Amino acid sequence: MNRELKIFSGNANPALAHEICAYLGQKLGEATVSSFSDGEIRVKVDENVRGADVFVVQSTCQPVNDSLLELLIIIDALKRSSANRITAVIPYFGYGRQDRKDQPRVPISAKLVADLISTAGADRVLTMDLHAGQIQGFFNVPVDHLYALPVLLDYITKKKISDLVVVSPDAGGVERARAFAKRLQANLAIIDKRREGPNQAQIMNIIGDVQGKSVMLLDDMIDTAGTIVQGAQACADKGAREVWAACTHAVLSGPALERITKSCLSQVVVTNTIPLRGKEQACPKLHQLSVAPLLGEAIRRIHEDESVSSLFA
After folding, report:
1. pLDDT of 266 over the 80 cut
2. Bridge partner residues of 249 (DSSP)
3. pLDDT at residue 66 tops 70
4. How many angstroms separate the CA atoms of 177 and 97, rounded?
5. How far is C-alpha 222 from the chain's CA centre?
6. Dihedral of CA 247/127/302/313: which sign?
7. Would you give the DSSP letter of residue 171?
8. Per-residue model confidence (pLDDT) at position 172
9. Closest by Cα among 214, 226, 224, 205 to 266
10. How far is CA 80 from CA 34, 98, 99, 282, in A?
11. Which of 193, 238, 279, 285 is labelled catalytic?
12. Global pTM value
């Protein structure tokens, strides 16, 4: 290719960016991403990017607003430095849960964030396991939507769990759970969940048979862990032999870690779209898998104008 491939990162998940670079045999681009004393974000690109094909790796995870603003300012800096094409690599897309008006007089924040990324100068977006697939349509630039399914599948298959039932913690995740169960040749069950408020959930009923089975609860993210822990307990109460959980994005805010530690869950499998920090790294129930090879391969294919969708064929 005539365009040089360059990869940059903000402060949200530099470890993942380094893993992606190692997969591609690249050196992480040199940039200063810091703050002024009053909290304003300061960015300086420390190498020439004129005419380059640039990828910016930045999950919009905690601190969410700082991570988002870092991404926008890095993109603007690259655009003003005459990069040929800028791809925002957003392993975890924050604000994705606010994708519709579910109450009167509320914003559609996912659309606003998508507009901000486009306006900043991103020419395309590479992301993973959006909370809702239709968020791709909020962007005015091409979106490559990856799935962590192959990474999670590979790990679960190697565990050789007998009598496995894949359980969706709510009706919205049924399609994801069904695809997972089909690949594992496992049965499917659904939890009927009634949400009573933000970050609050009440388990009502389990549709399907989990009696004497090994249960795998599957979701796109675990935030406060209320849904997944209540779901695990509901499965245990219905006679499940053991309960596992798997998700792509380990948001793990508020009481999440304490809830997981005290729960009946045997193990919670997550990916590194969001880095584990502090006590999360030491939690024996958390097991993290890397999506760096998947993201790295997608970046290579985008750079060389090859098919990305064939990764999941």
Report:
1. yes
2. 221
3. yes
4. 18
5. 10
6. positive
7. G
8. 81
9. 214
10. 19, 31, 31, 42
11. 193
12. 0.93
